[in-house]
Write a structure and sequence with these properties.
CATH superfamily of the largest domain: Hypothetical protein, domain 2
Bound molecules: iron/sulfur cluster
Radius of gyration: 19 Å
Order of helices and strands: HHHHHHHHHHH
Number of strands: 0
Length: about 220
């Protein structure tokens, strides 16, 4: 399903479940609904009904109640503010505005809004002129590397975001994918593979900094 509304629903669903589960949810929900019209969801369904559809076995999400509320309210906001089409959120506006608009949706944090900007530019070909305003995603794999390497001192959204802006000021969000992959595959929570790590020459290897790091 290649549809801007499906992208928005997948983004909202991408929480506490595998990425494949989240991003296939719009397609499976549309099958259960018999349509994927934002207007119909907003006017003819309720958050409880969406939650029930998500909960029906095999369940489409780990938290169907919350997700039902988030997705129904997204359909409602899309209908009332964006003519029922998520593409109107990101057409002809700056990255800063896209992030601000996305953060207004329930279930979309700054991390997810920043990631969405990157995906819109990288995978969906959306024109974004102010890439300097696309921040790195505040993800646990990325935070682990930044703390261990010494790129930042504290594990806060502000510290990690500012560190990425210093590292790649023209496009901090561009660092999301490579650092996420590095954190997941090499700089693992335990027994990091420092011998295979491409940033080892720049890393302070402060493993003690991430002993209590939580997702
Ligand atoms: S050198 Fe080791 S601690 Fe530093 S980022 Fe690479 S894997 Fe992580």
């Amino acid at each position: 399903m290649r549809d801007s509304n499906a992208f928005l629903f997948g983004l909202i669903a991408d929480q506490s479940v595998k990425a494949e589960t989240a991003w296939s949810l719009p397609y499976k929900l549309a099958q259960r609904l018999g349509h994927f019209s934002m207007q119909k969801i907003a006017k003819e369904s309720s958050s409880e009904e969406i939650g029930t559809l998500l909960r029906t076995k095999p369940a489409l999400h780990r938290y169907p109640g919350n997700m039902g509320r988030y997705l129904w309210s997204a359909a409602e906001r899309l209908t009332s503010e964006y003519d029922g089409c998520a593409e109107n959120i990101w057409s002809n506006v700056t990255a800063m505005e896209i992030v601000e608009r996305l953060e207004a949706f329930s279930g979309i944090s700054h991390k997810k809004a920043s990631l969405a900007c990157l995906l819109l530019w990288r995978d969906l070909g959306v024109e974004i002129s102010d890439k300097e305003n696309i921040d790195i995603a505040y993800d646990v794999h990325i935070r682990r590397i930044f703390l261990r390497a010494g790129f930042c001192e504290k594990d806060t959204l502000k510290d990690v975001t500012e560190a990425a802006r210093r590292l790649n000021p023209k496009f901090p969000g561009y660092l999301t994918s490579p650092f996420w992959a590095l954190g997941r595959n090499i700089c693992r929570p335990t027994e990091p593979l420092c011998g295979q790590c491409p940033i080892r020459p720049f890393c302070a290897r402060r493993l003690d900094k991430t002993e209590n790091l939580r997702a």
